[in-house]
Amino acid sequence: MNFTFTEEQRMLDETVQRFITRDYTFEKRNAILASDAGWSRELWASLAELGLLGLNAPEEHGGLGAGPVETMLVMNALGRGIVAEPYLSSAVLGTWLLRLAGDDAQRTEHLPTLAAGESIAAVAHMEPNARYELNRVETRAESSGGNYKLNGRKAFVLHGAAADLLLVSARSSGAVDAESGISLFLVKPNTPGIEIKDYATLDGQREAEIILRNVTVPATARLGAEGAAFAAIEHAYDMALAALCAEAVGTMKAMLDATVEFLRTRRQFGQPIGRFQALQHRAAEMLMHYEQAKSMSYFAAIRCTDENRVERRRALSAVKVTVGRACHFVGQQAVQLHGGMGMTDELIISHYFKRLTAIELTFGDVDTHIERFIDARRASS
């Protein structure tokens, strides 16, 4: 299998890496996190100018029509900068869900504004009792007189408070854990009956809890056929999972580089501590975990578009298990090798560690994906 990047892909990688180095310094990020919003509209506009927000939108809808490999390269760079802007939630998850579930008119109306950075989408799907189960939806959608009335509670909505457009899932029929019967709706955040509770996560990102109380939307706000949204939701989350793993790889690489540099410069007993064999072994193990995670992120970029959902889910669960374990190992070793200062906010290592910890738990932890891998393997045998 050829993993050589094209000239265009290398140029994309260089462009985004240069942007992170020049415009997203550690000090700049700290200032952004300290702001009320927790992210920067100015830098969001810069990402739009670079064309990155339209990476996953088709060319006919104002995007670049790129693929998962290009997304992987961008997420590698954003992971190095531990970027706080809603790229994963809007430019990946939201864009893909709109592409997969919407009709031509809905894609034509919304994808160009997402690609241009004029609007931000957030997917309100996960719920308090779901625990990573995408099919478990308790929020109800009742049809009445050409409208739908939505009632329920959504949790862990990535950048929910920043959204100009919410993609809300609700059950129009079936049991709470049935794959059939789930519908998707385009909802404006200022629609009467919506309450958005914004909060910061341990890694500085923003999430929201969204409560829907008799939220009325027209039937034209429904994405796709009634009760048939699960396949699109599942596939969009798989695309986002592949992107998340690529972000983790970028963060791990930055963490590894910073740790190796620290071992070279920190002196003890009259010599750099990097000369101690025990510490060299630990750094070597960090490198091994990083390289394995990197290879698996390539695998995710290749398999996330697979139309065979069982094989796609099995592959991506294997990737998340490997990447999740690497996040845990690389993060802990980097902090320990830095000593107590590795946990201070003044050092970027602690911020990398927090982001890797959050990534390990996002879209399913290691145990969850081991179970999914086993289930998918049984289903395919």
Automatic annotation (TrEMBL):
Residues 124-209 form the Acyl-CoA oxidase/dehydrogenase middle domain. Its cofactor is FAD. Transmembrane segments: none annotated. GO terms for molecular function: acyl-CoA dehydrogenase activity; flavin adenine dinucleotide binding. Keywords: FAD, Flavoprotein, Oxidoreductase. InterPro entries: Acyl-CoA_Oxase/DH_mid-dom, Acyl-CoA_Oxase/DH_mid-dom_sf, AcylCo_DH-like_C, AcylCo_DH/oxidase_C, AcylCoA_DH/ox_N, AcylCoA_DH/ox_N_sf, AcylCoA_DH/oxidase_NM_dom_sf. Residues 6-118 form the Acyl-CoA dehydrogenase/oxidase N-terminal domain. Residues 241-370 form the Acyl-CoA dehydrogenase/oxidase C-terminal domain. Belongs to the acyl-CoA dehydrogenase family. This is Pimeloyl-CoA dehydrogenase small subunit. It comes from Candidatus Muproteobacteria bacterium RBG_16_60_9.
